């Protein structure tokens, strides 16, 4: 299985990068280290000077809003995963309780102000590509969401389905990380050079967190225009 960024997407978003990490995992419902991370997120964002009102003006959030506008959707309705998670935290709602693996990478996404996602490697069909949508594609997302894909919209897709819609807005329900997952592929999205952090920094923290939780990172890397494709272990 290969992970790649499609050439037409790089022509439109030449600074796009994808951080990736593959790990062997055995998800559990609760881990105190993840709860510690989650409990400190609001204070972390406040220390950066962020609140619910000014979050959309942070450069890393604002640039994702611009990116979503370029995909033909209203960014105040369809938010990047980063903004959606940070907004929940700043509204005192906290992150969803899913598992140590999912909650952990969501917490790191908020801390680093970078969108992240993850898929069950064993449920993916063939290569996974970050590309523009294609005419006739329909995205079947979590929460019974069914959306006709616009060719302006960026998606992750394997050889069978759209796995993530609007770059990182919503995951496909067929390939999510669950309690049955044993190998996970974590993804970090960059459409533009971020201000607050980097794919390399968040991948380092992700690897450390997974080890602390008792999981086993196998390999990691970053795709870009200079290296747009890699085989996955």
Automatic annotation (TrEMBL):
<feature type="domain" description="B3/B4 tRNA-binding">
    <location>
        <begin position="62"/>
        <end position="215"/>
    </location>
</feature>
<dbReference type="Pfam" id="PF03483">
    <property type="entry name" value="B3_4"/>
</dbReference>
<dbReference type="InterPro" id="IPR020825">
    <property type="entry name" value="Phe-tRNA_synthase-like_B3/B4"/>
</dbReference>
<dbReference type="InterPro" id="IPR005146">
    <property type="entry name" value="B3/B4_tRNA-bd"/>
</dbReference>
<protein>
    <submittedName>
        <fullName>B3/4 domain protein</fullName>
    </submittedName>
</protein>
<dbReference type="GO" id="GO:0003723">
    <property type="term" value="F:RNA binding"/>
</dbReference>
<dbReference type="GO" id="GO:0004826">
    <property type="term" value="F:phenylalanine-tRNA ligase activity"/>
</dbReference>
């Amino acid at each position: 299985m290969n992970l790649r960024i499609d050439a037409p997407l790089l022509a439109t978003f030449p600074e796009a990068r994808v951080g990736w990490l593959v790990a062997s995992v055995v998800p559990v419902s609760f881990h105190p280290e993840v709860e510690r991370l989650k409990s400190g997120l609001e204070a972390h964002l406040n220390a950066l000077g962020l609140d619910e009102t000014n979050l959309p003006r942070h450069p890393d959030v604002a640039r994702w809003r611009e990116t979503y506008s370029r995909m033909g959707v209203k960014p105040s309705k369809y938010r990047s995963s980063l903004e959606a998670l940070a907004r929940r935290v700043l509204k005192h709602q906290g992150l969803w309780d899913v598992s140590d693996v999912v909650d952990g990478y969501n917490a790191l996404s908020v801390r680093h102000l970078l969108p992240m996602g993850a898929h069950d490697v064993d449920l993916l069909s063939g290569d996974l590509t970050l590309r523009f949508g294609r005419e006739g594609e329909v995205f079947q997302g979590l929460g019974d969401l069914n959306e006709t894909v616009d060719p302006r919209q960026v998606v992750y897709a394997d050889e069978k389905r759209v796995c993530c819609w609007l770059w990182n807005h919503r995951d496909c329900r067929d390939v999510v990380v669950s309690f049955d997952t044993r190998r996970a592929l974590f993804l970090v999205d960059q459409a533009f050079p971020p201000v607050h952090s980097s794919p390399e920094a968040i991948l380092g923290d992700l690897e450390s967190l997974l080890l602390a939780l008792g999981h086993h990172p196998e390999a990691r890397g970053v795709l870009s225009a200079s290296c747009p494709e890699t085989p996955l272990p």
